[in-house]
User: Fold this.
Amino acid sequence: MEDMTLLLERLRGRLPSEEPGARGLERVARNPGCLRLRTLVMIGVIPASAARDIYGFPAEEEESHFALSAGNKFERRLLENGAAGLLDLYRAAGRLGPTECRVCFVPDLRPQFQFAEASKRWTLTDGLLLKKLVRDPEAPNILIKPRLPVPLLGSEHDIEPDALVAADSERFYTPVEVKSYPDRGGKTDPADVRNACRQVAVAVVALRHAASRLGVADPESLVPATADLILRRPGSNFPVLRSMPLKGEVYSIARVQNEADRTIDEVKGLIRPGSTLDDPTTLDLIPNNYLESCRENCALAGVCKRQAIVAGNPVLLGNRVKEELAGAGSINRALELLHDRSDSTVCWKEQRLRNALQEALRAYRKVVNHGR
Ligand code: SF4
Assistant:
């Protein structure tokens, strides 16, 4: 049997391998029904590259240049002067005491340890995590940009959470995600909060994995499904700290974690032996699962929407209509049923849908004809 790593490399064809990062990994959990996205992540191709290099389609990602530079500026302010802003925030929230000020900038340790390989960066992060586990009084209270591997879909992917934080009295660290979105309380865009939560949930999974690697028997109780979100106070650059429960987000990532074998078996059953996925005709054979939310989540949305239009996919009319027309499978078939134009056998599900559609059409005509 072909080795999984070699198989994934072969399927990637001429494209270079890329790390999806926490954001890319959480997207898989957002649309677990999309075999195409799952496959691309497995073979190490990010959706933006697939859109551009496989389909020749302008990618619809990512954050605007303006949003990126605002985010970087906000994060820089928190981390400058030895992460003074971050320490102040946690002290003001009562989460760190005045003497709990040991901050470790993990990327800055790189030259000292001369590690070019990712595995050495994990080792370094592991060493710092171990200090905390053995209650070493010198264990940092804040780790900035630690490197953690997270096993997902058959490979270990590297992620770099913004920070990990723990008071001296705490057994282990809490992951932290910094976003420059303004925190407007209940009026904060729920999509922004949801996306940030899903992203930091990947760090929870990675931290549990690290704890287990370091010999912790019950990593779930050591690393609960919670994380800190740092947002921006509206109209200023001051940070706001929110502790977020992430049970659902962590569960959805854990659910796709072990899907590697099933994914690869499905892919092998769909494409010709020896073919590679850097070819649009072959990649088209891997089913997608276009959703309304794809537009905001995935750079392949333009490609997949075009395919949804060709297929007459009811999701184009919204998720609710997709549910309603599930019995027909396509907008064209629904129209055939509605107007009794079907020249193939109509099954019981379609009959039920035809009755509902025709009833709705009669009601609509009655309304527009003022009851006549
Ligand atoms: S845009 Fe396409 S590939 Fe991306 S998640 Fe949606 S259906 Fe899947």
